[in-house]
Amino acid sequence: MAMTEQEILAGLGKIVNEITGVPAAEVTPEKSFVDDLDIDSLSMVEIAVAAQDEFGVEIPDDQLKHLKTVKDVINFIQA
Amino acid sequence: MSKDRVRVVVTGLGATTPLGGDVASTWSALLDGRSGIRTLTEDWVDTVPVKFAGVAAVDPGEVLPRPEARRLDRAEQFALIAARQAWQDAGAPEIDGERLGVVVGSGIGGIGTILSAYDLYRSRGWNRVSPFTVPMLMPNGSAGWISIDLGAKAGAHATVSACATGAESIGYGIDMIRSGRADMVVAGGTEAAIHGLNLASFASMRAMSTRNDEPERASRPFDKGRDGFVLGEGAGIVVLESEEHARARGARIYAVAAGVGYSSDAFHISAPEPTGVGGQAAMSRAIRDAGIAPADVVHVNAHATSTPVGDEIEAHAIKEAIGGHATVTATKSMTGHLLGGAGGIESIFTILALHERIVPAIANLDDPADGIEVDLVRGEPRKLDGDQLAAINNSFGFGGHNVAVAFTTV
């Protein structure tokens, strides 16, 4: 049932591309959303809501602020 | 004309309208007398008595990348597209951002965003409302986005005066340059209001044409058979520049943005004051501000929306303020009424009439109303003769706002 890191990464890449235009291939685990991908806080909210739909995992606001990198989100979804 | 005041010129034009996705296609359609009005196919159309409008000829979603489009209201999309066109048309000069301003308003703001966000909020809860909802619905959103896009830091402003918005924005832009706050200003208006609620609201005022069987013939300013205005959408934005700045960089100059006149009717929130004294005052003040004489004004792009009461009052005001010699056109006969965008595109048409010395004819003017004592352009476009010419764009809005912008040849 649990998704693999690769599956989550592919799904996240699609979401980030749809919302921000950043190419999905640039969405790699070590990247920081703010510092590397230049994604602002409003778009992060959109990404979180879309990820919630895609992966069926709720990301509360107090957790969202700790999810700095793509890997952080993957870990959160897998946990 | 006063020599010690900064002269403001127009060096760039941008538009997206029911007639075309840019200025060139829109202008050529106007000279051909084509209509941008068509029957609507949205599912809500059965719920309203008006079943047609001037939908933008080019969907903004086809022009803007999707990630950009999805965080912009449709009115902001139009504004950003028109502003980028205008800036390119002006040569996209290198300029200190502190000397570049923006004045772009909308009559209503992001009403499409408000309505769809409300639907989402009701059906799926607060969490599904986009975090971009507020910047999409605020009427100053276009000014903000354009300032970001161009790096304009002299100030970003959004005038709001219903259907006078676009003209008032250009007036404010002229003042920004005259007062020394900026060397260049991107100014104009935008609107995206084709939605069942808006058609219902205007129809409820009995302000709209219901000529559903002949949408292309429905907008007929000054014609005896007119029965209301036709809603359009889009944006018109110009680049204003101090003449000194424009000359120094060798810019192409379309016209001089010579003056602006304002007045308010202080009469009724939506009905025009019956003697037209407010519109007349705005035109007279624009003429004075431009340092010209009424006889110099050879052309007026009338506000003329095709409502039964407004058009004749405006014709009378033009006669009183300028005289019977002015050739008058009413381009809403082809574009429909872009509300906050109207003063933007119609200022562009006024500028192009001077620049190319030709005035588009009023479409659908089969049988002019009685008692009109100005020179309505009918049938074919009219050539303008002479060296030094002046023209005025009128824009009037609910609330009693009257704005006249005077342009002259270079």
TrEMBL record, chain A:
Keywords: Cytoplasm, Fatty acid biosynthesis, Fatty acid metabolism, Lipid biosynthesis, Lipid metabolism, Phosphopantetheine, Phosphoprotein. One of its GO terms (cellular component) is cytosol. It comes from the Bacteria. One of its GO terms (molecular function) is acyl carrier activity. Gene3D superfamilies: ACP-like. HAMAP family: Acyl_carrier. This is Acyl carrier protein. It comes from Sphaerimonospora thailandensis. The gene is acpP.
UniProtKB/TrEMBL annotation, chain B:
SMART domains: PKS_KS. Its EC number is 2.3.1.179. It is an enzyme of class 2 (transferase). Pathway: Lipid metabolism; fatty acid biosynthesis. Belongs to the thiolase-like superfamily. Beta-ketoacyl-ACP synthases family. It catalyses: a fatty acyl-[ACP] + malonyl-[ACP] + H(+) = a 3-oxoacyl-[ACP] + holo-[ACP] + CO2; (9Z)-hexadecenoyl-[ACP] + malonyl-[ACP] + H(+) = 3-oxo-(11Z)-octadecenoyl-[ACP] + holo-[ACP] + CO2. GO terms for cellular component: cytosol. Pfam families: ketoacyl-synt, Ketoacyl-synt_C. Gene3D superfamilies: 3.40.47.10. CDD domains: KAS_I_II (cd00834). One of its GO terms (biological process) is fatty acid biosynthetic process. GO terms for molecular function: 3-oxoacyl-[acyl-carrier-protein] synthase activity. Residues 5-409 form the Ketosynthase family 3 (KS3) domain. It comes from Sphaerimonospora thailandensis. Involved in the type II fatty acid elongation cycle. Catalyzes the elongation of a wide range of acyl-ACP by the addition of two carbons from malonyl-ACP to an acyl acceptor. Can efficiently catalyze the conversion of palmitoleoyl-ACP (cis-hexadec-9-enoyl-ACP) to cis-vaccenoyl-ACP (cis-octadec-11-enoyl-ACP), an essential step in the thermal regulation of fatty acid composition. The active site is at C163. Transmembrane segments: none annotated. InterPro entries: 3-oxoacyl-ACP_synth-2, Beta-ketoacyl_synthase, Ketoacyl_synth_C, Ketoacyl_synth_N, PKS_Beta-ketoAc_synthase_dom, Thiolase-like. SUPFAM superfamilies: Thiolase-like. This is 3-oxoacyl-[acyl-carrier-protein] synthase 2. The keyword Transferase applies. Keywords: Acyltransferase, Fatty acid biosynthesis, Fatty acid metabolism, Lipid biosynthesis, Lipid metabolism, Transferase.
